Amino acid sequence: MNDAPIVTRIAPSPTGFMHVGTARTALFNWLYARGRGGKFLLRVEDTDRARSTPEATEAILKGLRWLGLDWDGDAVSQADRAERHAEVARAMVESGAAYRCFATQDEIETFRETAKAEGRSTLYRSPWRDSAPGEHPDAPYVIRVKAPLEGETVIADAVQGDVRFRNDQLDDMVLLRSDGSPTYMLAVVVDDHDMGVTHVIRGDDHLNNAARQGLIYDAMGWPRPVYAHIPLIHGEDGKKLSKRHGATGVEEYAAMGYPAEAMRNYLARLGWSHGDDEVFTTEQALEWFDLGGIGRSPARLDFKKLDNVSGQHIAMMETDALLTAIAAWRSAAGLQALTEDEREALSRAMPLVKDRAKKLPDLIEKAHFALTTRPLEIEPKALKALDTVSLGILSELTPQLQNASWDRDTLEAVAGRIAEAHGLGLGKVAAPLRAALAGRTATPSVFDMMVVLGREETLARIGEAVETASRQETTEN
């Protein structure tokens, strides 16, 4: 098996949103396969017909697409393969690795209650385990695996090491229900085998399942896959991640405005490490990722770290990539798409704002000066900077700006000379300029804004601000 091409899979149940833990498991599987030229498959475990919905399936597909985790071939529906699962169960009966059990639910429940009252093990041992076909009644039955009664089962796990299970603690689990439908434990093994899965990378809440599922592999003479059971994700308080810790669904992170690139980086680092590297590209993750770097302790979701990673990715991303990410965020958040004019304005402003943003909405907020249109709404606090003295300075500055070279250094020099002539610091000129250009007190550098806005728009905004402030002053007097 070691020489075979790597095949991994993600097998979510479509019973709700795509959990961030499922997303991380999918990422680990994708990185491991893609980084080794292997295949990454998607199987939708939709056997629970009562809870599985098309909407939940679509949420899974949407979450994987947003994260950029492409899969090979079509998504496989587990429910569509029920007859194949049943075929394997029947083959196990024929080989003696499984048996028909005619015990009723009432009989099983009575056994367990009695065993509990007497302080004995409640692990059910069916009286039909070694019965001959001639003894079988004409009644409904389930098919159970014939688990070994002595010795131990060892799971060689790439993350957890060798994990041992006493065989007398393994039950004769049901493979096929009395209505002929397969159980999850049977279906997952048959599907993994038939899909050629070589590595099963999943949460360590499935570790006990590996011992029981191994019985099916062995009974059918199939090679077991390499197992890698990864610790679950906990909240910052060390408890299992739940709604009380904040967002648990992938779509929530998309709607909050984290770029997919940053989310991939953060999730990869959540339980896996490569030296001290915290921020890395997807290309680096594909090159570095291995099972040996996965820790055995639960990882803790930390929004401050996520914000930090997100901010560094935004700073590294090219403008076109950021515009694409912004479009994905606005769609996920149910917001209107940016117009072509807004995209153009945001493009021009991007170099000024991307180094200070933690999430994609921050870019829109910080680029407000470029996205807003005249007449500007000037915030009360900013309006205070447009006093009589400041209006005089802006009026004096305007003709000098009309003939200046339109680059940052020249514009700053022009403003500096005006400030010096009035015995003022540059900040005293920058404050009213900021109010005039953006209508706010917190913005990028005024000279950078002037370059982005251009000469015509800059002068028009200054002119309007002078008029607005003058009108207000006249009204107040």
Characterise this structure:
This protein has 477 residues and is mostly helical. It has four domains: 7-77 and 233-300, HUPs (Rossmann fold), CATH 3.40.50; 79-230, 3-Layer(aba) Sandwich (Rossmann fold); 317-371; 380-476, Arc Repressor Mutant, subunit A (Orthogonal Bundle), CATH 1.10.10. It is 49% helix and 10% strand. It contains 19 helices and twelve strands. The chain has helices at residues 20-34, 54-67, 82-95, 105-117, 184-194, 207-220, 250-256, 260-269, 282-288, 303-316, 319-332, 340-353, 360-366, 368-371, 380-383, 388-403, 408-421, 426-438, 446-476; strands at residues 7-10, 39-44, 76-77, 98-101, 142-145, 152-157, 161-166, 174-176, 199-203, 226-230, 233-234, 299-300. The chain has a three-stranded parallel sheet, covered by helices on one side. Strand 2 (39-44), helix 2 (54-67) and strand 3 (76-77) form a beta-alpha-beta unit. The longest helix has 31 residues, at 446-476. The chain is elongated. The model has no long low-confidence stretch (mean pLDDT 93).
Mean pLDDT figure: 93
Fourth-level CATH superfamily of the largest domain: HUPs
Main sheet summary: 3 strands, parallel
Supply the number of structural domains: 4
Q: Rough shape?
A: elongated
> SS-based structural class?
mainly alpha
What is the helical fraction, as a range of percent?
Answer: 40-55%
**Discrete helix count:** 19
Q: Report the CATH topology name of the largest domain.
A: Rossmann fold
Ends distance: 88 Å
For the largest beta sheet, what order do the strands appear in spatially? 1-2-3
> In the CATH hierarchy, what is the class of the largest domain?
Alpha Beta
Give the radius of gyration: 32 Å
Classify the beta-strand content into a percent band. 5-15%
Q: What's the total count of β strands? A: 12
Poorly predicted regions: none
CATH architectural grouping of the largest domain: 3-Layer(aba) Sandwich
Catalytic activity: tRNA(Glu) + L-glutamate + ATP = L-glutamyl-tRNA(Glu) + AMP + diphosphate
GO biological process, one term: glutamyl-tRNA aminoacylation
Function: Catalyzes the attachment of glutamate to tRNA(Glu) in a two-step reaction: glutamate is first activated by ATP to form Glu-AMP and then transferred to the acceptor end of tRNA(Glu).
Enzyme class: ligase
